[in-house]
Amino acid sequence: MSQFLSFLPLLLPLASAQYSNSSTLSFGSPSGYTSSTFNASAQPTAPIPRTDFSDQALRALWDLVGPVATGPVTTTVAPTPEPSASAYPQPVGTQFHPYVPSYYPELSDAKLPEGFKWGLASSAYQIEGAAKDEGKGPSIWDLLAHRVPNIVSDNTTGDVVGSHYFLYKQDFARLNSLGIKRFSPSFSWPRFFPFGRGPVNEAGVAHYDSVISSLHENGIQPSVTLFHWDTPLALFEEYGAWTSRSIVDDFFNYAKFVITRYDEYVEEWFTINEPQYCNWQYSFYPAGEGYYPAFNNIQTGVQSRFLCGHYTLLAHAKVSKWYHEEFKGKGRITFKNSGNYYEANSTKAEDAIAVQRNFDFAIGWFGGPWTDGDYPQSLKDTLGDLLPEFTSEEKALIKGSCDFYAIDGYSSFLAFEVDGGLEACVSNRSAPGFPDCAGSASTASNGFPLGPAADPAMNWLYSTPSGLRRFLKHLTTTLFPSITDIVVTEFGFAEPFESQLSNMNQILWDLRRADYFQSYLDNILASIVVDKVNVTGAWGWAIFDNFEWASGTSVRFGLQYVNYTSLERTPKANASADPAIPNPQISSSPESSAPSITQEPALNVTGQASDVRATPPAPPTRGKRRHSLSEDDDVSEGTQTDAPRGRTSRHTSKRRRRQDGTMRLDSDASNPRSQSPPQSYTNGSARSPGPRSSLGKVANGDSHVKTESNGSYTNGSSVTNGRPVPTTFLGHDREEVTRILIQSLTDLGYHGAAGQLSKESGHQLEGPTVASFRSAVLKGDWAEAEELLFGTNYYDHGGGVHLDGQGSFGKSWGKSARTGPNVRHTGGLTLAEGANREYMLFLMRQQKYLELLEGGKTGKALMVLRQELTPLQQDTGRLHLLSSFMMCRDPDDLRNSSEWDGAQGESRSELLSELSKSISPSVMIPEHRLAILLDQVKQGWISNCAYHNTAASPSLYIDHICEREDFPLEPKIDLRNHKNEVWYLKYSNDGTKLASTSKDRTVVIYETTNYKPLHILEEHDAGVTHVAWSPDDTKVITCCAQQECSARIWDVKTGRCLICISDFTYPCTTAAWAPDGLTVVIGSQDTKYGLAVWDTYGNIVHKWTEDTLRVNDLAISPDGRRLVVLLEDRIIVYDFRTYEKIYDSVITGVKLTSVTISQDSQHMLVSMNENKIDLMEIDTSEVIRSYSGQLQTQYIIRSSFGGANENFVVSGSEDSRIYIWRTNGQLVEALDAHPDGCVNAVAWHPTNPREFASAGDDQRVRIWRPASSTAPTSTSNGFSR
């Protein structure tokens, strides 16, 4: 106490108080200090830059994870010799239990295409182990598995797992012995860069050097994934990883290092594995919960989900652009999508919307590379400010950044409207289903599962093989039609409760997994050979049992069993193989209940089968349900079912089918038959009274209806002269060939021959149901047409207003009022896969509406619009247009406004033709099928003919080829009328004249019969940069460079200058005539008149003033609809009829120099520095193809279309050559043309494809013709040999 009292004098100045219950204390502030407030829970708002990359810093990161386990193997193990595949214990399918069969006997002779890539896949964190070894940094999953309670259901980690990091050499030797020649691993980002950036880990590099070498030593081709969710933990600590833009540069730095080092040995790069993980994994990471900071307070949930996805897309796109444009990589690059297939749970429109939303919020979210580089509109509308926005430059970067489409397609679902309705969900960000706002389930509407279930821990995974096939077609024809080829980069199955088994005899017979792989591979093959989807590879998951993220090791996907104690691998039944069989058959013989039938083995994941052959199976019991290539699950003819008549038990996809898609060939005998009695037709057709239309216009047919022919059908096979005929014809289905011939004979007008063929073969072109449907459409009986097309049960949506005013339209969505003894109850026609029923209804009801308007029945038409068209929820813009037709003055005004030729014109026939595209081809053969097939043959010839330069159609008698000697490859005429560099030249539209421009200030106009000068236009005061011919070739406009800065219009007949437009202060660069020849568009570098329309008297008609337009080149489409303008780095497209801008596209990193437009007005050819020519769609700016080889770095080099039917692209070059490509991108020739300078422009003769002209710095114009040509050739529309 005495010591305290001694300090009391020192404390008194700091505080004085009156010690009573009512006293107030006051405290002083010592000098020399600063104060602040602190919040230990606050999250950082800015990155915490890392500068320490030392061993101590790495140890500190691992301290966040905690102790790490080590396995029984801690060094790389040298491989021991592996036995051959046949030496592994494997099922004996001929003894007591058969192999898993194929359910598609139709595929028994089908093979995978040459070059199809198949193999196995896995990822670094899931199989490598060695978590802390050899300098590796921790990943986010090291932290999650070790520190976050219950995030892994069995509390296991990836510390050891299969220890592939040390056993990879043995694993690859085993793959080799099993006949598996491809492997798709992922590389570990934190093994290369322990801190995510900074110095590279030498031990990690040495390891993956050895991995790549070992793969190639074993004859295994790698396809490498750069990132499979193992983000370096250091980046979460530094700036929050994938919620920060900084991740884009750090991932690019990592990817650039790996690709640069290994690209020589890797065919394919996957930048990102399943960026959709940002939803179901990343958005649940515990940011700000004590494990790592939540920068800018971005924690779990929707915001982190879409930031993660945003920067993932940008990271991928940046790597892709560098890979192709700077690094010039030799392989292909893309990212792997996670997506499942969806169909509507019912016929409700709301369920169809749910299907699309499920697609949009999964694969559509990352669909920018295949569309416009942006997000789907549904995401923008729903998320608002929660969805980051891309700049125009970023959209351009993303668009086209994938070389092929990669899909991890495991399962399928039925989609349904979310509880409470879509509007309630999207308007409430707290709603449980927000933002997807679409339900889905793995059970059918009756509660039965869609397929066999996987392990309960994988409650989303059901074996739904036909869903994969539909998904592949839907992806490539509906969702992303720009996809060139598609690879199934993961598919696999978790055998139920396998991890709980200890008896190897139970483990090795993994029947559900074997069935999964067999069925999925069957459907991949069917997708290729039947649906014509360009599937180029398939990767099974997984190489062996692994760490399955939140399920740990409690779930097993492996084709090899892993003993996690001894680390021994054992191939399961589904991994047995005979590697001696190349390019294997996919399918086996069909399953039969007869015990004596020996089954052919299933195709296992290696794509190879045992050489045990099956004896022919017994004929299937009549009425027994089986699978078919048509995917129609209805029972066969004559079998009773509990399903309502007229509606299949399987849901039909509601998405609209692409009009140009490949239709399914429903050749299965179990397809639904006509409900009407079979009849024979003498001319292969049936007609009801009413307007007639040729079968060539509307080609019809029912699905394999057996008609009697001379009373002879033997066991379901047709007979000829009493003798059965084979079911095939030179390898083709005889019935398909016969029906197509019947249709073709009818098209040709040989109706008697068609009838005789139908009678003799026993096959008919169309059955009575199809004929009745066609007749109903052509008569305008829309209620009857809907009933015949969709069946009685589908008529619930039909009915409504009749053309004759009869019928009920009080409830357009209720049951039809058509009742009574005369009502027909049919099952409807079989629709093509993916057919959109609502769209088909819309087409018919639109026709009905227009016919009512045409007949003056405006009130009834209005009812159809409101009660029948609007509820279909198809095209809102189209509905608004249809409603505007109510204001038409008379029928003629209606037909003109709607571009529709009326009920008595061809509109009903055209409608029937359009509807036939959505009806199964086996029921209604696509029109002119033989002609289409012959066109495809000819197109194949033409595509493979490098010098194809004729407008004449090739003869069918012999295989087509064009000889090189008939191609214009030699300069036959040299024109030396210029005294300086020749900058540009252009043929007149009729090809009778050629104009060339020069730096010498002149324009020379030649007659092309002998190439003698007609006029030399010499009034220019500067070099002439451009010339354009008027549509009638009576005038030309010329543009001058600096000094004069003017444009002149000349009379071609007299050579006289008609007008000089000299309002410019900067050079005129380009000009184009309007199709009417009354106005011209002039582009210049002028800030005032950069882009304007002028009449031929020099008056401005229109000037674009929205910003400064310094124009390098421009072109007007031949149809007069589009004006394309090139600035330095922008392409602007206008509607030339209204002068309104359609889009403004920024092209970064290049200088745009010239543009020309194809004769069909669909495409533009854009030249740019450096060394690049792009063929693009005008209305979308989508790059269709790029051409390379030519040199263009400093000067304006003009490219153009040329040859017959514009089959070629031609360009000059700074290396004095002319480069000629086929429009498909094949370089045909590089011709030495104008020595000592540039070839500035090339122009192909518009009417003689065997002639073109070139202009060069050597002051010459050269005329090129075939080597055999000695005199000027006659003009014609194409040249035929």
UniProtKB/TrEMBL annotation:
Residues 573-731 are annotated as: Disordered. Residues 647-658 have a biased composition (Basic residues). Keywords: Repeat, Signal, WD repeat. WD repeats lie at residues 975-1016, 1017-1060, 1239-1274. Residues 839-860 form the CTLH domain. PROSITE patterns: CTLH, GLYCOSYL_HYDROL_F1_2, WD_REPEATS_2. Pfam families: Glyco_hydro_1 (PF00232), LisH_WDR26 (PF23627), WD40 (PF00400). InterPro entries: CTLH_C, GH, GH_1_N_CS, Glyco_hydro_1, WD40/YVTN_repeat-like_dom_sf, WD40_repeat_dom_sf, WD40_rpt, WD_repeat-ST_regulator. Residues 598-609, 668-686, 708-721 have a biased composition (Polar residues). SUPFAM superfamilies: (Trans)glycosidases, WD40 repeat-like. One of its GO terms (molecular function) is hydrolase activity, hydrolyzing O-glycosyl compounds. GO terms for biological process: carbohydrate metabolic process; proteasome-mediated ubiquitin-dependent protein catabolic process. Residues 583-597 have a biased composition (Low complexity). CDD domains: WD40. It comes from the Eukaryota. Residues 1-17 form the signal peptide. GO terms for cellular component: GID complex. PANTHER family: WD REPEAT PROTEIN 26-RELATED, WD REPEAT-CONTAINING PROTEIN 26. This is WD repeat-containing protein 26. It comes from Lophiotrema nucula.
